[in-house]
């Protein structure tokens, strides 16, 4: 008997696969966690043409917006926001289960000069975007605006919305919150009374911007806590996104889920129940007022019938005990079959005291 131990071939294969699978899974996870990428079928095209935009590395089942934007480069992004893009000719696409997509995009001139990019960004959920260099043939090209050398603000913390709805909001009052964030001055000069732009958007619609000025001075290397009010229209509900822009660049976005004003729904339900009931009651009151009284129907009663009513009896008992008026002899009550004589079995006789058949007491004369 030898001291060698035989290892089955399948056991060795399982051991090899166990060693190889973790590195392969790590590589796949790294690829999935990588930044989203965008590729174009053409790097240049004229107005009226079209290009094919493909992407990978995006979240699965995510709605994306594809736009041609001017005054932008991939390194700095779309500096002017969506105002620098051809929004009317944009396209939407949804990624597949692997985070990929392919979509044709018509070429259109942006409202600002090139350099241009094809800008792809998420519409809902966590913010993600990617740009690819693209040249619109025949469109003007100008250098990018110089960045200010003075103070520059940068968002240092995540934004949040403080506040809650009240009873009036439940009945359709405009919902309001306070956008809170912290910014720092990363420039070389102080920033005095900065003007921010706060925008609110619903679904796939573009945000509606409103300028709000913060009173104060932020010195270089310092930070400040900013609070800006945000208010929606009356009766607004659903998913909204609050965007913050400064210096023409979007600095942060914060989702906001607004509840439905159920008080308005309850009000209309009550209106649908109360108004018909009130109209019914009003109609019945009018009918009672217009219809004739019951006393008018009894004017034709005869005096003998009124005189025969016994006090203290109810109408039904009065009718039961009422004495009929003496009518003429009915035809079926003839002298031969008169019910008054039906109980007599003997011949009629005189019951008077003088009758011979009446017995007399003894001793009478």
Instruction: Please give the radius of gyration in angstroms.
Output: 50 Å
Instruction: Quickly count the helices.
Output: 5
> Averaging pLDDT over every residue, what do you get?
78
Low-confidence stretches: 1-5, 20-32
Q: What order do the helices and strands follow?
A: HEEEEEEEEEEEEHEEEEEEEEHHH
Outline: extended
Main sheet specs: 5 strands, mixed
Output the structural class: alpha+beta
> Which percent range fits the helix content?
10-25%
What is the end-to-end distance?
A: 167 Å
Give the amount of beta strand, in percent: 25-35%
Question: What's the total number of strands?
Answer: 20
Order of strands in the sheet with most strands: 2-10-9-4-7
Descriptive keywords:
5 helices, 5-stranded mixed β-sheet, 365 residues, single chain
Would you kindly provide a written description of the structure presented here, covering whatever features stand out?
- The protein is α+β, with helices and mostly antiparallel strands and 365 residues long.
- It contains five helices and 20 strands.
- The strands form six sheets. Strands 2-10-9-4-7 form a five-stranded mixed β-sheet, with no helix packed on it. Strands 11, 12, 13 and 18 form a four-stranded antiparallel β-sheet that branches. A four-stranded antiparallel β-sheet has the order 16-15-19-20, with no helix packed on it.
- A hairpin with a 2-residue loop joins strand 19 (238-246) and strand 20 (249-258).
- Residues 1-5 and 20-32 have low confidence and may be disordered.
């Amino acid at each position: 008997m030898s001291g060698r131990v035989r290892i089955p071939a399948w056991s060795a294969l399982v051991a090899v696969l166990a060693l190889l699978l973790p590195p392969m899974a790590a590589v796949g996870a790294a690829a999935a966690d990588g930044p989203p990428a965008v590729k174009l079928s053409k790097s240049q095209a004229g107005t009226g043409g079209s290009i094919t935009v493909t992407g990978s590395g995006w979240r699965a089942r995510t709605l994306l917006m594809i736009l041609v934007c001017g005054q932008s480069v991939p390194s700095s992004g779309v500096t002017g926001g969506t105002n620098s893009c051809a929004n009317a000719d944009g396209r939407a696409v949804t990624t597949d289960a692997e985070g990929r997509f392919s979509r044709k995009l018509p070429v259109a001139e942006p409202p600002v000069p090139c350099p241009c990019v094809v800008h792809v960004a998420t519409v809902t959920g966590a913010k993600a975007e990617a740009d690819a260099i693209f040249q619109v043939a025949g469109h003007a090209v100008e250098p990018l605006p110089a960045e200010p050398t003075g103070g520059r603000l940068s968002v240092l913390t995540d934004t949040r919305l403080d506040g809650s709805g009240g009873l009036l909001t439940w009945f359709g009052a405009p919902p309001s919150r306070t956008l809170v964030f912290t910014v720092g001055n990363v420039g070389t000069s102080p920033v005095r009374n900065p003007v921010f732009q706060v925008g609110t958007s619903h679904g796939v619609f573009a945000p509606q911007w409103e300028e709000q000025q913060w009173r104060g001075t932020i010195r270089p290397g310092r930070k400040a806590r900013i609070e800006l009010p945000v208010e929606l229209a009356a009766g607004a509900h659903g998913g909204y996104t609050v965007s913050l822009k400064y210096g023409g660049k979007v600095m942060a976005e914060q989702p906001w889920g607004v509840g439905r004003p159920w008080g308005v729904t309850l009000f209309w339900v009550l209106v649908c129940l109360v108004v018909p009931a009130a109209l019914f009651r009003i109609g019945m009151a009018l009918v009672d007022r217009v219809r004739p009284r019951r006393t008018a129907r009894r004017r034709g009663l005869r005096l003998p019938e009124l005189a025969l009513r016994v006090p203290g009896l109810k109408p039904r008992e009065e009718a039961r005990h009422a004495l009929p008026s003496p009518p003429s002899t009915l035809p079926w009550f003839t002298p031969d079959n008169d019910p008054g004589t039906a109980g007599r079995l003997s011949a009629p006789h005189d019951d008077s005291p003088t009758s011979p058949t009446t017995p007399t007491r003894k001793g009478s004369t």
